[in-house]
Amino acid sequence: MSLRLRLTLLTAGVIFLALAAFGGLAGVLLWRIELSSIARQITAQADALSAVARRSPGALPDTADDLLERDGITAVGRVYEDGVLIWAGGAVASGVLDPDFLIGRQPERLSRTQGYMVASRRFGSGPDQVVVQVGRSLLPLEELLARYLLIAVLVLLLLSALAGAVAALAVRRALRPLDRLVRRVQHLGTPEPVPGINERSEVGALARALDASLAELRAERRRETLFVASASHELRTPVTAMLADLQHTLARERSPQDVLAALHRTEKTAGRLRQLTGNLMSLTRAQHVGERQAADLLDLAGEAVDLLQPLALKRDIDLWLDGASTPAQVDSSLFAGVLENLIGNALKFSPAGGQVNVRVSPLHGGALLTVEDSGPGFPPGPLTEAFVRGVPGSGSSGPEGFGLGLAVVRQVVEAHGGSLDLGARPGGGARVQVTLPPTPGALPARETEHLVDV
């Protein structure tokens, strides 16, 4: 069942119930008002007939019939003396109007019995006891109420059908923007704007949320397309180089020295492929960050610095670590990869005799990690458009690109709720800053700082 039909039926049902309740309440009120009016009339008539019976004991004058007529309606009158009917007037009726009162002791009573409303009065004592009863048949009132109910039901059905039609038109008009949204969602690839963005209703809020989601999806698609292209390029280049080297070596007889040199080149290329595939695996893992543990980023940075000591010594680069104890809740294995990528890239792009500075410090309850180098710096453009480091424009062959390193770093940092900022170091070189948000329950920070030169 569609939403439009459900809303129409719900609206028509609510209107039907409201009208039925109103009609039923009106019928009950009409019944009670008429009963109250009849009760007042026959009570007054019984009192008047009792007064006449007191003045004329034994026989009532003919004018007593006039007391039983009111507004063109004639009531039934009975006068009993010592249980014997001595006078009957007014409308025709059979039997005693209220037999229980006739044999009882009450001085007066208003009752409904045998389809009549009866007002009874008693006066006198012993054999001179007189009972006066005046009654009105309720059959005309019941017939009137039955006609009212029939008309009310017909009017109720007619009004409900009319209300259902109006509700269907109103619901259709209200859901028209939603229909346009549905058609737009069915064609997500089209550049048309999302309809209903400027509306202030719930549909407008949905349209604005959908427009924001589509913008994010388009941006994510662009990032994924660029990432796949860059990853393909990064993987294809070493594979092509390794295959060409092997084909060249196998093309003719080679000396053992040449074969050994080719194997060393192949080993280096295979190592680069392993790094690239490792980055791809890290990037996939970053989509689903594992359980986060309390860790000290200064300790993690120290482990990464220790791991990269041989590379720093080999390239004749000074590697410095300083900062304060900085607690955080992170996936330690993934964040260790972040530190190794950032420090490794800084070492790779720093010239011999250069310097790489790593600093870890608390920041408003969170953490700030800074890595600076003395290399050529970053090229202009956002991170998603720069998967490789810039090289000097002099035409000299600079160091190779860093592959998927920054893509991995960005994904892991954002998965932890942080941000990655690429910039320039004063005096030349690149600066990378990783900011992590505050973490409840983090370890207290130590105020001491550490300085390590590798």
From TrEMBL:
It comes from the Bacteria. The keyword Isomerase does not apply. Pfam families: HAMP (PF00672), HATPase_c (PF02518), HisKA (PF00512). SUPFAM superfamilies: ATPase domain of HSP90 chaperone/DNA topoisomerase II/histidine kinase (SSF55874), Homodimeric domain of signal transducing histidine kinase (SSF47384). Residues 230-440 form the Histidine kinase domain. InterPro entries: HAMP_dom, HATPase_C_sf, HATPase_dom, His_kinase_dom, HisK_dim/P_dom, HisK_dim/P_sf, Sig_transdc_His_kin-like_C, TCS_sensor_his_kinase. It catalyses: ATP + protein L-histidine = ADP + protein N-phospho-L-histidine. Its EC number is 2.7.13.3. Its main location: membrane. The keyword DNA damage does not apply. Keywords: Kinase, Membrane, Phosphoprotein, Transferase, Transmembrane, Transmembrane helix, Two-component regulatory system. GO terms for molecular function: kinase activity. This is histidine kinase.
